[in-house]
Design goal:
Elements: H1 5-24, H2 30-34, H3 38-41, H4 58-68, E1 90-93, E2 99-101, H5 102-106, E3 111-116, H6 121-137, E4 142-147, H7 152-162, E5 168-170, H8 175-180, E6 188-192, E7 198-202, H9 209-220
Parallel strand pairs: 3-4, 4-5
Antiparallel strand pairs: 1-2, 1-5, 3-6, 6-7
């Protein structure tokens, strides 16, 4: 059977419409998201981020927490008043699972806050340098690491592997990064003045304690 010219045009129109439907039909992106790093996908996710993975219960973390042997989280300086963007942010301390108010814990002393994640290659190279710097700086300022992925157990295992025992908090929801306006990359170093104001947000990986010391001296005036 031969189609008339009108029939041919109708058939062609149907083909075009079908192609357009296929082109705009919604597609799941779970495979694409799974292949990217967390920092690449966090801004596009429609699911509210979790501070900690559900399986990372206190009981499940007890062994890796003990093995990591991290330093205790900082405590508030007597008389210091929390201020700035970190005031009121409550997070879990990696060393013991207790919660701290980050702004209150850092108030009254200059601080270096380091954002990292267990899967971040540059972070793995930077954290040992940060440990060396913190040992040099002593009480001149507070150094606090902030784990930016919900998998807290993986963070504790990574720190054990790196030989890093710095105090840290678990922040899979990215509260601190959002508060200081950190870019969606890792690692990021945030330098905080004693009054709680932010002196600098540095989205660059440091390769040595000397590099860290130079940046801290420039932004906070602390020598180490």
């Amino acid at each position: 059977m031969r189609l008339s010219n009108t029939g041919r045009w109708s058939l062609a129109a149907l083909v075009v419409v079908a192609a357009l439907i296929v082109a705009i039909w919604p597609r799941g992106d779970s495979d694409e998201t799974g292949s990217r790093g967390y920092a690449d996908s966090i801004g596009n996710s429609t699911v509210a981020p979790q501070e900690r993975a559900p399986g990372d219960t206190p009981e499940a973390l007890a062994g890796v927490r003990a093995e990591a042997a991290l330093s205790a989280c900082p405590t508030p300086t007597p008389g210091a008043v929390p201020a700035g963007p970190l005031a009121g942010i409550g997070l879990e301390c990696l060393s013991d699972g207790g919660r701290i108010d980050v702004g209150a814990a850092l108030a009254g002393k200059p601080a270096l806050v380091n954002l990292w994640a267990y899967w971040c290659g540059p972070c793995a190279r930077e954290l040992p340098a940060l440990q060396e710097y913190a040992d040099r700086a002593g009480d001149a300022l507070t150094v606090l690491t902030v784990h930016q992925d919900p998998k807290e157990g993986n963070a504790l295992s990574a720190l054990t592997e790196y030989g890093v025992h710095l105090p840290g908090v678990q922040d899979g929801a990215g509260k601190i990064a959002a508060a200081v306006g950190a870019p969606n990359v890792l690692p990021v170093t945030v330098l905080v003045r004693a009054d709680g104001t932010v002196a600098g947000v540095l989205p660059v990986p440091f390769e040595s304690a000397d590099q860290i010391a130079a940046a801290v001296h420039e932004k906070l005036g602390v020598s180490a």
